[in-house]
Specification:
Elements lengths: L1 H12 L2 E9 L5 E9 L1 H8 L9 E7 H7 L1 H4 L4 H8 L5 E7 L4 E10 L11 H10 L10 E7 L3 E8 L2 H18 L7 E7 L4 E4 L5 E2 L5 E7 H6 L6 E5 L1
Parallel strand pairs: 1-8
Antiparallel strand pairs: 1-2, 2-5, 3-4, 4-5, 6-7, 7-12, 8-11, 9-12, 10-11
Helix pairs in contact: 1-7, 3-6
Length: 241
């Protein structure tokens, strides 16, 4: 089942664009926004005949803590450390738009943080909300990687930790299959990082980062199929002047 899930994720997400934007203020607070946008032309190439049979409509906005409050009877059943994990997502705002009629599939997750280390792994937000609603075990812990952030005022770090090597190997195999089948197709499958800092950037660990002329902002782009096969390629260390 997990193997099929990874295959499905590659189909869904390698035909879209994910943009992760972080803005850090001088006091260390800031905002993060994660936008997942399906590219319809790319998705058509992958979905084939099933594309025309889609019949989906969802337009939902919520703040994660609303799930904690609404399904509190389920929430209190979790262990203390699990409740604390959910609380890290309390102020995450989620907007889900899926419309096969308008051909618009877009998810936006956003959070204002007081310090960078407070940023949770936003990619797990929907899974955790579903867990609370249905009183499930923590399904997002089945992810094979974890994203964490840190900033001490001088050095910013984005760290990917592999937490399930067996699932990583399966993901690598699926990513390789995807590249073999669709590598020559003109598909949008980009993973873009856009980070803004309060001081000038001295260096970025990834040489492909494009630093702005004022040295306070950079953009870095990956292929989603490369990311799912090797999430650690998005590890970063940014040193400020």
């Amino acid at each position: 089942m997990k193997y099929k899930l990874i295959s499905l994720l590659l189909v869904l997400f390698t035909s879209c664009q994910i943009t992760e934007t972080i803005t850090i203020n001088p006091d260390g607070s800031g905002d993060i926004e994660l936008v997942q946008l399906r590219d319809e032309n790319s998705y058509m190439q992958v979905a084939g005949e099933s594309y025309s049979r889609e019949n989906i409509f969802q337009d939902t906005t919520f703040i994660f803590k609303e799930y904690i409050n609404k399904y509190n009877e389920n929430f209190v059943k979790y262990k203390t450390d699990e409740q604390q994990l959910f609380q890290k997502y309390a102020n995450v705002k989620v907007h889900l738009k899926k419309s096969s009629f308008e051909k618009e599939f877009k998810n936006v997750l956003s959070l204002h943080f007081n310090k960078v280390s407070e940023i949770p792994d936003l990619y797990k937000t929907e899974d955790y909300a579903s867990d609370i609603q249905h009183n499930y075990a923590l399904t997002a812990e089945n992810h094979y990687y974890r994203i964490e952030y840190d900033f001490d005022g001088k050095v910013f770090k984005r760290k990917i930790s592999i937490i399930n090597t067996a699932e990583l190997e399966k993901a690598k195999q699926e990513a390789a299959k995807f590249t073999e089948r669709y590598g020559s197709s003109k598909m949008i499958q980009t993973y873009i990082l856009k980070y803004h800092f309060p001081n000038n950037i001295k260096s970025v660990s990834n040489p492909k980062a494009v630093i702005s002329s004022d040295k306070k902002f950079f953009t870095l782009e990956f292929l989603l199929s490369d990311f799912y096969g090797n999430p650690e390629i998005t590890n970063l260390e940014v040193v400020l002047e």
